[in-house]
Amino acid sequence: MRVRAGGRSFAVQVRRVLGVLRLPPGNPLPGAPRWLGGLWAWRGEALPGVRLAELFGGESSPQWLVILEAEAPIGLLVEEVLGTAETEWSPAEDPLLVGISEAGEGVIDPQGILKVCESWFSGRGT
Amino acid sequence: MELWSEFIDEMLRVAQGLRSQAPEPDLREVARHLHTLKGAAGFVGLDELVSFLHAAEEEIKGWKETPDEFGHYLAYLADLLEEGAEQLARERREFLGELPRLLEDLKAKKFSGYWAKLGRRVWVDADALEELLALAGELAEAAEGKLKLLAENLRSKIASLRLVRLGRLRPYLESALEREAGLQGKLARLEFRGDAEVEREAAEAVAEALVHLIRNAVAHGIEAPEEREKLGKPPVGTVSVSVRAEGEQLMIAVEDDGRGIDLRAVRERARQLGLEGEPLEVIFHPSFSLKAEVDLSAGRGVGLDAVRRAVEELGGEVSVQTEQGRGTRFLLVLPTGLSNAHVLVFGDGSSRIGVLASAVSGVHEPSEVKLEGRWAKLGDEVLKVVSLFEGEPEGFVRVGRLLLAAPRLYEVARGIVRKFKEPFRGRFLGYLVSAGVPVPVLNPKWLLRNF
């Protein structure tokens, strides 16, 4: 599944997508880095939402919440959902990506996204 | 009150004993259990129970052989006693009303039908209960009017099902103590005083922390029997665990009558390890504990960092007092259940955050607070100001030595503070769903450590 955020497009593996929602109201977290968008209620749990563009140094006004499967579900805030396409990918160095697609888009690693959230929530990271 | 909680424990033990007899009752054993409980019941003045137990004991002693289906009766009696223990803990006594009929059936050896009464208690998967609770919470949140009241009622009923009495940990703690004493060649006994109800998850963490502290007390506190006698102490050392609920806080003290912590040795060891701080602080340091584990004779510290971690994850704290030659006392202070917590919600126009009301020592008007940079004077005290939000504060929330600036004070919400999924724990104790969004509840311990 291809998504767009901050003028860049990315890909996520469809089998890791748990849901796609029109961005519902959330609760921003005080003192959080810019890429951490806040908390959303999803299936009775608190879901952290990550602004995808900001995580890669960009800027965006997200419209969609894509819920990804990782150790615990994690939300991705994106501007547009572009549909699905089949692609192969080559490995990437970035811990946030599982690889780079044929079209040159970063393929998001949900567990990598979770890890950056974990370091903030644990209170050890900044 | 202490007397009662001890009696309730006794009742649960006897219930357990009777249940273990149910598959193949040994009449002498059964009579012995009833006799034990009779003594204890007499002590607290539960006359109806005393007369039932007395009559039942006499009756059973007269039997030559075990009647058919007597096991079902015993299992039912065990159920009733457990139920009774729960009732007594809530100062209720309805179970006593069943005793006369039970006695009648016992005398008539009429045990058919008791099997059908069994199983009034069902085992529920704890995770399913959590889900149920979350759903009831959402229902209460969405509903209005009478339906809201009903949903709130439902929520608190479900919440109370998740509570466990800490007194039930006693046999578990006793066996941990015995095992450690056996390993160390020491003599020790456990005293357990008081009781309180906590959530299952908290009870597990508390149990883990208590086992660490008890083993620690036996390994490093209690002296060998010969040494104790030389010191004029009884050869059997005592580790006492006392539990007390106070308001929304739970206090658990673990105390031993051993040798105390050798502060000089701790200081020396800390210096070698390059650790700074007061000795009673240093013992909780992970690398201090690690080192002490390698060299048991050095000091006291096995797993103390684990204890602190377990307690802090629950939003509590640990402190320690020690007296050379007299013993050591660890005090754990924990918030009781997060299932029905009061949470002060504050924030700015877009974001809301909570803090447990039990952790708040006051909410102050800006006019009471004299700001000087990142510090503030409140009366005679100088407190540090924490500004999590931008904007002119409407009030200041005091947590320990910190003043949290609150551009907007929303409400004191009452509800379940649910834990975050494992990776997202630390900074917050959990979250509370309010107005459709999760409001994270700050972990005061994290705050105090980081500001």
Describe the structure.
The complex is a heterodimer of chains A (126) and B (451). Chain A is mainly beta and 126 residues long. Chain A is 13% helix and 41% strand. Chain A is built from two helices and eleven strands. Chain A has helices at residues 52-55, 110-121, and strands spanning 2-5, 8-11, 17-22, 36-42, 45-51, 64-68, 74-78, 80-83, 89-90, 97-101, 106-108. A six-stranded mixed sheet of chain A has the order 8-1-2-11-10-9. In chain A, strands 3-6-7-5-4 form a five-stranded mixed sheet. Chain A is globular. The mean pLDDT of chain A is 92. With 451 residues, chain B is of the alpha+beta class. Helix content of chain B is 45%, strand content 24%. Chain B has 16 helices and 18 strands. Chain B has helices spanning 2-21, 27-44, 47-61, 70-89, 99-107, 114-117, 126-142, 145-161, 170-184, 200-221, 225-230, 263-273, 279-282, 286-294, 304-313, 444-450; strands at 163-165, 188-193, 197-199, 237-246, 249-256, 317-323, 327-335, 341-347, 352-356, 362-364, 369-372, 375-378, 381-386, 395-399, 402-406, 408-415, 428-434, 437-442. The two termini of chain B are 41 Å apart. The A-B interface holds A 24-31, 38-41, 44-48, 71-73, 114-115, 117-118, 120-124 and B 131, 134-135, 137-138, 347-348, 350-353, 388-389, 418, 420-428, 431, 433, 436-440, 443, 446, 450.
